[in-house]
Design the sequence.
């Protein structure tokens, strides 16, 4: 399948702390197609950010290791590359946008300098005039008003939305991006600014055929952006499907619970909101069977004994024993 | 209508000094809350929405005098809170409470749950020790905490449970009016709905009046009866919730509503993406504050400040064009 830009197989990322080993991402597999957007959804601590950091090999070496798995980017296993090899991909072919634009930018460097630096790293032979021209055009592309003036300013002089645009500009600076990983790019922003940034990312996808992995906890953003959705819970992928079938017929009790518990603009206020009881189990203290079994309302005996595998129902994958028979029947 | 009003806010203004001269003379101000007048009715939930920096939290805090308002009146039960003496205000606080946004920062990490919830009773010297404990048990049950958790510390709890402690502490004195400042923003989706349901149940049981501050429009719609939309320190629109969501009149409200992503696929929305950013509250534009981003702005909007006026059935809007 040459249509896939990224294929992750059985990725397992482990952190070692005082209390021993914690498996933050536990053998997950997924793939991203060219020019499509995959959204990874889940609550805090479910391992969605760690997944994205693992792809770029940005896991801090002192505490974390990728124990198992393959990450195939264009057919090459990223995990087997040496430091030089990964540097050629990182920021060049795969770029990343972080959540917090204030900490993502250097506060004592002007915007222009930072963007120019990002371009220079990947194409060291361009002269200074050319660099400035290129930075200016990238900043114009991401919709920054008066880019020439902004280039001389420092991050604190820009608003949150503007800073996030600069971050996107830097991510795009290499020019031959094939995959953009955005980790909660709009969470810190207001809704009207969020709409601007999402529009910008959609343009990128449509015009440059860039693939996007968008990490978020906001189901609304998912509905807006996603072609495919992966729902994560406590380090495991629970459901993987195209956006339409996920929203219209969610299979996993966790996914449907999540969707039902969001107050929509159309929710009747006299009805009680649907709730998922309890809270996410700690990674050091996982239940034995299915990870969601402690909070699930549709459990059977098997759920507490054995972890379900990922059942494939015509491309709609789900990790729940409820669907065991439906796959066997086929 | 008059007797239904619980809190009447008149021309409330809060300016923060942003720059001082060498001798301490203020040079420029941040106009955080600018001439806000609102009525809050008994037993209702008034939602306040707006983007960050629009003054919604400052408004909530000024009403309770947690930040001293610069001018204006807050009339509660026939008394003006702004002119009360410190001790009178302290007594008044029994009836006015606040739930903060961040359940991690608003609980003292060195106090047990018991002490945290009991603290208001201790402060106001209500009842003896056994009566206090009885009250604590009763409240804990109401907010869904168990007795075994009595002697634990805040770090042992998850975000949702901490917020339950914060709520328990706020309602133990049986207040009439509670300002909820983004109470669910820091919580995960699956826990958020638990806390919203709790707030709703408590309101019914205790006949509370809420002022619910949030930037999340779908949460506000779910919990509120009436909603006020703020922009740069001013209320630009105020209406019954259904009226507001179906017939938004102010261009800013319209843009805000259309920008909310909806968790349904295949529903094509008409997005009116706003250009630009919110202007600085130090130097707000002349005339209507929204004129720099408004697609309908004309000469009048740039010169004349629109007043909040009734456009029918209690639907208030501050726009020349409506």
Sequence:
């Amino acid at each position: 399948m040459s249509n896939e830009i990224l294929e992750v197989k059985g990725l397992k990322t482990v952190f070692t702390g005082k209390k021993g080993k914690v498996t933050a991402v536990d053998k997950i597999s997924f793939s991203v197609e060219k020019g499509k957007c995959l959204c990874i959804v889940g609550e805090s601590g479910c391992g969605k950010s760690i997944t994205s950091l693992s792809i770029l090999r940005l896991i801090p070496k002192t505490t974390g290791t990728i124990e198992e798995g393959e990450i195939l980017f264009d057919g090459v296993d990223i995990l087997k590359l040496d430091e030089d090899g990964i540097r050629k991909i990182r920021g060049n072919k795969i770029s990343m946008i972080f959540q917090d634009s204030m900490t993502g930018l250097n506060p004592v460097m002007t915007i222009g300098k930072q963007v120019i630096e990002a371009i220079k790293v990947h194409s060291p032979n361009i002269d200074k005039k050319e660099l400035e021209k290129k930075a200016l055009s990238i900043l114009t592309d991401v919709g920054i008003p008066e880019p020439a003036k902004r280039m001389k300013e420092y991050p604190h002089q820009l608003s949150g939305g503007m800073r996030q645009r600069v971050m996107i500009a830097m991510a795009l600076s290499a020019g031959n991006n094939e995959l953009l990983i955005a980790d909660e790019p709009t969470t810190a922003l207001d809704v009207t600014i969020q709409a601007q940034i999402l529009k910008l990312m959609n343009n990128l996808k449509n015009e440059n055929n860039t693939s996007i992995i968008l990490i978020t906890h906001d189901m609304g953003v998912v509905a807006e952006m996603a072609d495919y959705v992966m729902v994560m819970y406590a380090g495991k992928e629970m459901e993987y499907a195209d956006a339409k079938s996920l929203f219209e017929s969610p299979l996993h009790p966790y996914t449907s619970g999540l969707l039902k518990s969001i107050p929509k603009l159309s929710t009747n206020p006299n009805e009680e909101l649907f709730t998922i009881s309890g809270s996410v189990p700690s990674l050091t203290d996982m239940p034995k069977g299915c990870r969601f079994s402690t909070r699930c309302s549709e459990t059977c005996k098997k759920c507490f004994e054995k972890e379900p595998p990922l059942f494939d129902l015509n491309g709609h994958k789900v990790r729940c024993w409820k669907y065991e028979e439906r796959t066997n029947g086929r | 209508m008059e007797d239904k009003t619980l809190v009447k806010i008149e021309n409330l203004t809060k300016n923060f000094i942003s720059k001082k001269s060498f001798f301490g003379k203020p040079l420029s101000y941040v106009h955080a809350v600018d001439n806000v007048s609102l009525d809050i009715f008994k037993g209702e939930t008034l939602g306040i929405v707006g983007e960050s920096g629009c003054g919604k939290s400052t408004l909530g805090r000024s009403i309770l005098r947690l930040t001293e308002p610069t001018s204006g009146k807050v009339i509660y039960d026939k008394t003006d809170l702004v002119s009360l003496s410190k001790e009178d205000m302290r007594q008044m606080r029994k009836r006015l409470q606040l739930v903060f946004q961040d359940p991690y920062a608003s609980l003292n990490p060195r106090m047990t749950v018991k002490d945290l919830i009991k603290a208001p009773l201790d402060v106001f010297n209500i009842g003896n020790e056994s009566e206090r404990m009885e009250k604590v048990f009763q409240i804990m049950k109401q907010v869904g905490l168990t007795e075994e958790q009595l002697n634990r510390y805040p770090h042992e709890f998850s975000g949702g449970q901490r917020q339950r402690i914060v709520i328990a502490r706020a309602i133990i004195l049986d207040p009439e009016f509670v300002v909820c400042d983004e109470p669910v923003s820091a919580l995960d989706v699956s826990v958020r709905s638990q806390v919203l349901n709790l707030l709703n149940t408590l309101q019914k049981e205790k006949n509370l009046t809420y002022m619910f501050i949030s930037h999340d429009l779908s949460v506000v719609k779910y919990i509120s009866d009436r909603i006020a939309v703020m922009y740069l320190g001013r209320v630009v629109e105020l209406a019954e919730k259904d009226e507001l969501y179906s017939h938004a009149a102010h261009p800013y409200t319209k843009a805000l509503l259309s920008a909310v992503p909806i968790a349904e696929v295949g529903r094509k929305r008409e997005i009116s993406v706003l250009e630009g950013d919110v202007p600085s509250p130090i130097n707000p534009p002349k005339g209507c504050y929204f004129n720099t981003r408004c697609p309908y702005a004309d000469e009048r909007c740039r010169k004349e400040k629109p007043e909040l006026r009734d456009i029918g059935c209690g639907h208030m809007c501050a726009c020349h064009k409506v």
Chain B is about 30% helix and 25% strand.
